[in-house]
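Consider the tokenized backbone below.
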């Protein structure tokens, strides 16, 4: 009797959900009909999933598990089929007639095929031994160095991302030509993805410091030099390699005199004698090594000596870039965010330590001043500095700092600003985006659409692409609270074209939604995309430490393993990007033995019958 009561309770809940599914299907019939025929069944399934999730199903799932039935935890891609199948099973257990089957709904196998097709449309063919694609953000180096692009392709890159916020059309064109030419030689199809910058809310400029470089060799805890500082010596117009941060510019004719083993001698700004040993070629310049800490300024005299200590030539240091300045901030400090474009400055004090001028800095989108309110939070530099708005007027915001490092944080120019609780009326395509889109529509396979907040933003992009008679793919970057809130409507509008995808832009999104909330929100985006059979991209800071410093952290290895749940994983550029691509390729190939989307896979454990565990056969 108790078992029958439980079966009847579960059956009643399932029937209620099915009724809601049909009700919402009727309610949003127009939106479903307006999508491209390729996506019609997927749009229908998305609406079904939202109907399912409009119920609190915790209790239902608990009863299903107690009955030994599936808990409907992986229902996303085939909602109505799963509900009707469960209803049929319950009818049989209750001895009732099985309801008539509904034709044309998506089954488990069909949903897999649809997602695989949509993923192929967006990202091209998968790698031979890996299901999840890898997207790599290409640096400017890729415009000139074909071997670099070739190595990335061989290491596992499936899509090449170009960020329109950097470089120019000439450089983009060279990168695209390199990728297409080398892909063809390797018999691969690498897709070109181009990011539109979108409306960037960032800090403005700060008054520059002196034109000096600080040479710092690596030292141990006792102060002994364990690695020399690496310096790039080249004429001023040559491009600095990604893995060296110090460039000493010299005249081209003097540079031609430099040979391996020579010594460059100088007196730094403190009149300290410094020697730089010349090494081999590095790009278009030469690498130098210095075991002494030094401060070198524009105009410093350089003497070149051969290995035999004979003087060869003299020169002076060319024009150096000014030292990047910053505004130091501590908790309870006041920062003025201004509308004007004056260069920012730290707080100023007189000789007695009395404050005479508050720290101030401008922002790149002064139109937001009319949208913010007192007591709303504000975040700087990916959330490293937090504040609250204490006063708003036409020309400036007074901000009290509520979080910074104990020793103080450094706010620099061109750092992101987030106002997660403010109702900002800034979204859509910027004038620069519209200019860049002409190039993107002609040469890219896909446009990555930044800061999409609602379906109107999507429509604006569709209208612009139509004016260029372009049908390239669209990846919707979800990086705001509004974007997450409106994701279903955003998808239904975007489905009017194909192919489409979603990028989980985890940097801004985590700040916008709150660190404590982000994990569940990321999970929800994955579920919604699966319900719509839309491929998603796991992006921002994947193997960041490895790509930039050459050594991964334990946390980012785990993050990269979880990324296998997405259809594509994005890596940002860095000095060790090739190493990062190889590592990610291995992680993804190994993890696909244990995980498929959100579903756990249980491969046979060798020697388990002898109470031994081994994963040796999964080694990559």
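A designed sequence for it:
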């Amino acid at each position: 009797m108790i078992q029958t009561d439980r079966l009847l309770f579960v059956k009643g809940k399932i029937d209620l959900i099915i009724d809601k599914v049909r009700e919402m299907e009727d309610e949003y019939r127009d939106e479903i009909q307006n999508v491209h025929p390729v996506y019609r069944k997927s749009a229908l399934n998305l609406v079904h999933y939202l109907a399912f999730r409009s119920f609190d199903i915790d209790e239902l799932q608990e009863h299903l598990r107690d009955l030994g039935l599936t808990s409907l935890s992986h229902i996303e891609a085939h909602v109505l089929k799963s509900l009707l199948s469960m209803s049929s099973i319950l009818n049989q257990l209750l001895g009732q007639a099985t309801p008539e089957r509904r034709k044309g709904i998506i089954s488990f196998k069909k949903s897999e095929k649809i997602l695989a097709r949509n993923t192929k449309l967006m990202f091209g063919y998968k790698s031979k031994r890996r299901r999840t694609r890898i997207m790599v953000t290409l640096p400017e180096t890729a415009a000139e160095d074909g071997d670099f692009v070739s190595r990335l392709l061989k290491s596992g890159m499936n899509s090449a991302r170009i960020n329109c916020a950097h470089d120019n059309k000439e450089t983009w064109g060279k990168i695209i030509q390199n990728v297409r030419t080398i892909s063809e030689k390797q018999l691969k199809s690498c897709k070109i993805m181009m990011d539109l910058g979108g409306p960037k809310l960032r800090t403005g400029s700060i008054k520059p410091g002196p034109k000096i470089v600080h040479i710092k060799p690596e030292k141990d805890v006792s102060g002994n030099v364990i690695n020399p500082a690496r310096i790039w010596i080249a004429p001023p117009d040559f491009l600095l390699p990604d893995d060296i941060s110090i460039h000493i510019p010299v005249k081209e004719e003097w540079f031609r005199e430099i040979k391996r083993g020579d010594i460059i001698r100088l007196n730094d700004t403190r009149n300290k004698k410094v020697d730089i040993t010349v090494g081999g070629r590095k790009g278009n310049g030469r690498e130098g090594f210095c075991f002494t800490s030094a401060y070198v300024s524009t105009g410093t005299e350089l003497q070149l000596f051969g290995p035999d200590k004979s003087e060869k030539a003299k020169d002076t240091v060319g024009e150096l870039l000014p030292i990047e300045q910053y505004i130091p901030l501590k908790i309870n400090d006041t920062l003025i965010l201004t509308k004007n474009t004056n260069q920012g400055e730290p707080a100023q004090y007189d000789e007695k330590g009395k404050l005479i001028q508050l720290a101030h800095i401008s922002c790149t989108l002064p139109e937001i001043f009319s949208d913010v309110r007192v007591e709303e939070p504000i975040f700087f530099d990916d959330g490293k500095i937090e504040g609250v708005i204490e006063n708003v007027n036409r020309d400036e915001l007074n901000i009290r700092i509520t979080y910074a490092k104990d020793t103080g944080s450094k706010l620099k120019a061109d750092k992101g600003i987030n106002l997660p609780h403010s109702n900002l009326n800034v979204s859509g395509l910027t004038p620069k985006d519209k200019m860049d889109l002409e190039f993107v529509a002609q040469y890219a396979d896909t446009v990555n659409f930044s800061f999409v907040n609602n379906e109107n933003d999507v429509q604006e992009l569709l209208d612009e692409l139509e004016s260029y008679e372009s049908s390239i793919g669209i990846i919707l970057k979800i990086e705001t609270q509004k974007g997450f809130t409106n994701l279903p409507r955003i998808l239904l509008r975007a489905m009017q074209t194909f192919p489409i995808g979603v990028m989980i832009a985890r940097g801004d999104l985590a700040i916008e939604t709150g660190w404590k909330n982000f994990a569940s929100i990321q999970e929800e985006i994955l579920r919604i995309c699966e319900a719509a059979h839309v491929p998603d991209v796991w992006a921002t800071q994947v193997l960041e430490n490895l790509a930039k410093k050459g050594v991964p952290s334990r946390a980012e290895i785990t993050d990269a393993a979880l990324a296998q749940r997405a259809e594509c994983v994005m890596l940002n550029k860095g000095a060790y990007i090739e190493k990062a691509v190889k590592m990610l390729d291995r992680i993804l190939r190994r993890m696909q033995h244990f995980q498929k989307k959100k579903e756990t896979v249980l491969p046979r454990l060798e020697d388990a019958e002898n109470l031994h565990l081994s994963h040796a056969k999964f080694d990559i």
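The chain is about 35% helix and 20% strand.
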